[in-house]
Amino acid sequence: MSRFIIFDVETPNYRCNRMSAIGITVLEDGVVTNEFSSLINPETDFDAFNIRLTGIDEELVRDAPTFPELWPQIEPLMSSGLLVAHNAVFDLGVLKKCLDYYEIDWKPYARYLCTVQMGRRILPGMSHKLNTLCDYYGIALNHHHAESDSHACAEILLRYLESGADVRQHIRTYSFRRA
């Protein structure tokens, strides 16, 4: 697999069923070839914790597109390679909940890599938090900003690949089948 779609989402509240931002970084043959990010109007309430964490609040997203408005733009990217995220089950779960809430059909399954799970095998015995790995590798990070987090995750994946990691051992399948 030579095309990776690395993504990160931010959420407005503890329910983690909507997005307030998304960042997507495309990695092809070891090179970042495309980056996309957008705020998203989640059409729901924001928790104080999430506002402090991400800096995103109702005012900031007031004129941002909603998820269904943005999906036609991001779906071709998300469908164009192997999905990758740091703690992937979280980001994939938020994506699935958004698709379900807005009754948007996508594919029933997606193959993915989780850089946390990869890291636990490649660098055992250390913390695999995104900011810790960025410090370890000297990667710039504006943590909890989707575009920065997705780019940092891409850089971490590159480090793993450069160290000889075989991604085939780490590919998993996530179900997007609607309940």
Word description of this protein:
The two termini are 30 Å apart. Helix 4 (88-101) links the parallel strand 4 (82-85) and strand 5. The mean pLDDT is 96. This protein has a 6-stranded mixed sheet with strand order 3-2-1-4-5-6, sandwiched between helices. Helix 6 (130-137) packs across helix 7. The protein has helices at 48-54, 58-61, 67-78, 88-101, 115-122, 130-137, 146-162; strands spanning 3-10, 21-28, 31-39, 82-85, 109-114, 172-175. It has one domain: Nucleotidyltransferase, domain 5. The chain is globular. It is built from 7 helices and 6 strands, in the order βββαααβαβαααβ. The protein is of the alpha/beta class and 179 residues long.
Q: Helix coverage percent of residues?
A: 25-40%
* Percentage beta strand: 15-25%
CATH superfamily, please? Ribonuclease H-like superfamily/Ribonuclease H
How would a textbook summarize the main sheet? 6 strands, mixed
CATH-level-2 architecture? 2-Layer Sandwich
| Distance N to C terminus | 30 Å
Q: Could you give the count of β-strands?
A: 6
- Along the chain, the helix and strand elements come as EEEHHHEHEHHHE
Which quaternary structure do these chains form?
Answer: single chain
When the domains are counted, the total is: 1
C-alpha geometry = globular
Q: What is the third-level CATH name, the topology?
A: Nucleotidyltransferase, domain 5
Strand order in the largest sheet: 3-2-1-4-5-6
Number of helices in the DSSP assignment: 7
Radius of gyration: 16 Å
Low-confidence stretches: none
